């Protein structure tokens, strides 16, 4: 009888430890899904180059995540990229002349969309398009520009 | 009228021992792979009596037990228990049949993680819904019958061979089966333990009116306890009868077995090429 | 040569089929065992899980520590030491946690299961149960199988958690990595999806390891040599099966 008690207690403690570990992993090791808004509205933006932006990338303003990239599509007529974003409905005071840029998180980080506020009194709502955009920085173009400028200076001298 | 206890037992035995057969084996053929084990075996197990199955090693005595309990299936032939061919039984009927058997395995086959008490209680817990109190009563009674009531809390690994076998007997008896099967019950026991087992076998059979089948090759012990013996050899019954009859038999095979002679129909030498040739042949190379 | 390869292939397919049928038979019996013999399952969860905790926790802590060391040493080349947290988290939760735990489990609990059942077969205990009209599969095999399946995901979670803590201790205390950066970087990069991948792997590996262990034991040749072969085969087969399915699950998650 004593042996059964030890066994049951042992198994119970083990199960609790295991479930506790699972809980730990899901809460401490991950950011969870920090964007799970109930009410959202959709906004689009056009970019010449989205770089390595991926769906589910965060959309942030002032450094705070307010939404996510939903889809990225290629427009065959205008030959640019159309990004559809999903934004928490609570943030309904984003000026409709804001600026959307494709930025990089950290040095090796993944790319996200950063919104910079404009000054308009009308706000973004369902279906709006963000008018001003800045494409992703492509490293090769940057190096190319640098080299060209460097050689131009040489020529001048 | 003086009624001695022994006479009461005899009386009980007379009452229950009909001369009908509880198990009948008809024309049994069985082969393991390519090797034939039984070639048309015929035998009857009489209700209420102790029947012994004897024979040289390797004649398949344990296989026969497995066939009777349908752990194996015959290639052809029939085995009837109470007139019903066991090959036709459904799985649930088979389990019902197996509940009528109690089997004592060669090593006892006690469950090693349970105490002696729990081992004997095992079939009761599995098949009956008796309360713990009743189970305790039954278990202690059975253990008392084999003389091991005091060992109830020991583990199988703490028991001697003889004690383990007695516990296994108590377990086999726990659900009061009709047919008790003993697979080599005397092997490896000291004379005292053997005497105990022999006494228990006879007592159980007579007191409870059950049928006992003993598989053994211990001629002397079996002769003291069996009513009928079957001598198996080469896949069939070589001889059958009471121990006294077998002792007087004239067949060479029976005599070799009953008297333990080294050579005879069962040859001493395993099959080998000619002796001289093998020795000299090697030398000349 | 070709003939041998063909024969091996046939044997493999047959064994795979036998395993699948066995697994189905076990699954069918699970509900009844759960309802009527729950204490048996609890005892087996204890055997397979609680008794494996020591090896799991010790190995987890050291694996985490090694990840911190290796991660640090290699990430300094890119001046990205703060990414040690991401590195350790990724490796543990998605890969090393499930895989190493499965291999350790096979070595400790798998061999115990296989040899227990094999020995019960060799000493006629299973035959005795059959004779007493008790289904040995239901009473002996299924509880052990369930014990392993339940214990594995829990063990993996413990391994990963202790591993992260081990990486934290080595990284923060030994290598002076910033505490905040360690956890914050990890949290912002790892998602629920990654934890789900680890959990799925642990469940699949648990089924594989437990199934192979009880199968080998149940089908062992009832001699001392047969039981010993069964235990070694358990470890070998589990290792191979776990690593192959690890590849398949990882590939599936990356599509």
Kindly describe this structure.
The complex is a heterotrimer of chains A (157), B (285) and C (255). Chain A is α/β, with parallel strands linked by helices. Chain A is 29% helix and 32% strand. Chain A is elongated and about 85 Å long. Chain B has 285 residues and is an alpha/beta fold. In chain B, β9 and β10 form a beta hairpin. In chain B, α1 packs across α7, α4 packs parallel to α6 and α5 crosses α6. Chain B is globular. Chain B starts with a helix and ends with a helix. With 255 residues, chain C is mainly alpha-helical. Chain C is 87% helix and 0% strand. Chain C starts with a helix and ends with a helix. Chains B and C meet through α3 and α4 of B and α5 of C.
How many DSSP helices of chain B? Answer: 11
Strand order of the largest sheet of chain B: 6-7-8-3-9-10
- Please tell me what the overall shape of chain C is: elongated
User: Shape of chain B from CA axes?
Assistant: globular
Mean pLDDT of chain C: 89
Main sheet record of chain C: none
Tell me the helix content of chain B: 40-55%
Question: Unreliable runs of chain B, pLDDT <50, ≥5 residues?
Answer: 1-18
Given helix and strand content, the structural type of chain B is alpha/beta
Q: Which stretches of chain C are poorly predicted, pLDDT < 50 over at least 5 residues?
A: none
Main interface pair? A-C, 24 and 38 residues
Write down the secondary-structure element order of chain C.
HHHHHHHHH
> First CA to last CA of chain B: what distance?
86 Å
Distance between the termini of chain C: 38 Å
Report Rg of chain B.
Answer: 21 Å
How many helices of chain C? Answer: 9
Q: Determine the mean pLDDT of chain B.
A: 81
| Oligomer description | heterotrimer
Q: What share of residues of chain C is helical?
A: over 70%
Number of strands of chain C: 0
Q: Could you spell the SSE succession of chain B in H and E letters? A: HEEEHEEHEHHHEHEHEEHHH
Summarize the structure.
The complex is a heterotrimer of chains A (about 160), B (about 280) and C (about 260). Chain A has about 160 residues and is α/β, with parallel strands linked by helices.
Layout of SSEs?
The complex is a heterotrimer of chains A (157), B (285) and C (255).
Chain A: H1 2-29, E1 40-47, E2 58-61, E3 64-75, E4 80-88, E5 99-104, E6 111-116, E7 128-130, E8 132-134, H2 139-156
Parallel strand pairs in A: 1-7, 2-6, 5-8
Antiparallel strand pairs in A: 1-4, 2-3, 3-4, 5-6
Chain B: H1 5-16, E1 21-32, E2 35-46, E3 50-54, H2 61-68, E4 76-81, E5 84-85, H3 91-100, E6 101-104, H4 116-127, H5 132-145, H6 161-173, E7 179-183, H7 191-208, E8 211-215, H8 219-225, E9 228-233, E10 236-241, H9 243-247, H10 252-259, H11 275-283
Parallel strand pairs in B: 3-8, 3-9, 6-7, 7-8
Antiparallel strand pairs in B: 1-2, 1-4, 4-5, 9-10
Chain C: H1 2-36, H2 38-48, H3 53-75, H4 84-122, H5 125-131, H6 136-174, H7 179-189, H8 192-218, H9 224-253
